[in-house]
Every structure is written in structure tokens, then in C-alpha cells.
Amino acid sequence: MGILAWIIVGLIAGWLAGELMRGSGFGLLGNITVGIVGALLGGFLATALLNISDPLSGIDPTTVIVAFLGSVALLALLRLLRGVNT
Asked: How far is CA 3 from CA 10, 36, 82, in A?
């Protein structure tokens, strides 16, 4: 997937994860970064645990869902490390 597609998917996934997990956010660039890293995390977990061969193949609903779930997991981990409960 090209860099522009990663940024678009990261933006969507990061924004959705930020909306789901209300509280102190990371801002627009932080959400994009969390979305992109979350997409990588989600892609790794989908491949390792669910045997999905290429979960991040383009801009489609499956990719956004995998990136979103990875972003939510990453946000939960970051908040746990930061000690932020709200």
C-alpha cells in the first residue's frame, strides 16, 4: 500500500479510534500517527492470529477495520502507560 493510502487509512482509523475512546487526545498528527502504527499492529495481529494473508492491501472496509482495531489497541496501551483514565 502506498504512503498516501497509509496516511488516509491512518487518518480514518486514528480519528475513529479517538472518537471511540474519548478523553485526552493526541491531536490531528498524533491521531494519524496512532492510526498508522495501529494499522501496522492490527495487520500484524490479523496475520499472526487469524491467518489473514494481506489484511492491509488498500483502502477498503477490511483495511480500515483492521487499522481501527489496531489503533484502539494502541490507544488503550498508550493510555495505560500514561496513566490516563479519562
From this structure: 10, 10, 29
Q: What span, in angstroms and rounded, lies between the C-alpha atoms of 51 and 34?
A: 24
**Number of residues that make up the chain:** 86
Taking each helix axis from N to C end, the angle separating 61-82 and 3-20, rounded to the nearest 10 degrees, works out to: 60
74 vs 77: CA distance, rounded Å:
5
From first to last of its 86 residues, the chain has per-residue pLDDT tens of 566 777 778 788 888 887 887 765 677 777 778 878 888 888 788 778 877 776 666 777 877 888 888 888 888 888 788 775 54
